[in-house]
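Aim 2, interim progress. The first record below pairs a target sequence with its structure tokens.
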Amino acid sequence: FPQALKNALPTLGNEFITLLKETSVANYITVHDLTYAYKSIGGANYEYMLPYLFLALSYLLLVLCASYLVKLYEKRLRASDLY
């Protein structure tokens, strides 16, 4: 299992990040997520630019954190090959 995980981790990490990015599209299929919350905030005061800017930044932060964690785990698995 550890050897299989080492080979599959880059693909699984990419799929996780892609799914994270595509959750904004899920809002259009009536799944309430970050996009719905920020749209509600924008609708409350009729200003959409600032909430959507924060939405983009929050997705960017989530993707960067997920990418960092996957990279960190890959590095840890690669370091175990040396022993």
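The second target in this work package is listed in the same format:
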Amino acid sequence: MAVFTPVTPQQADDYLMRYPLGGLVELTPIAEGVENTNYRLVTEQGAYVLTLFEGRTEASALPFCLGLTGRLAAQGFPTPAPVADLHGQVIGRLNGRAAAIVEWTPGAWKRQPTDKDQYRAGQVLALLHLDAADYDGVREN
């Protein structure tokens, strides 16, 4: 199970007050993943992912990562966009963890990718690099 930091429906609903997404309709833990806590978050406005970044995730890297994701999504690259709160921030705090809400994208990972799937993944990765080439964010590596 990839839920390391529990979030109650009341805590999620309280957190949502910072966002233009309406009230909580449904909060479901996402069992997959190894690094962070993720929930499928359904609000009056739609479906999203609520992520709480766990201790191994460097909080200082989040502005770069979420900034890049947001920029790519705005350019039309197929990635879910982070959602800004009412103050324009995409990173908040929930239950002692850095947290973010991003758009929900339906689908599932391919457990047995074909050669064609892998070729397409390589094409998309190349597009990501091209689309991100002029991103001015900086992250120490």
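The mean pLDDT is 94. This observation will shape the mutagenesis plan for the next reporting period.
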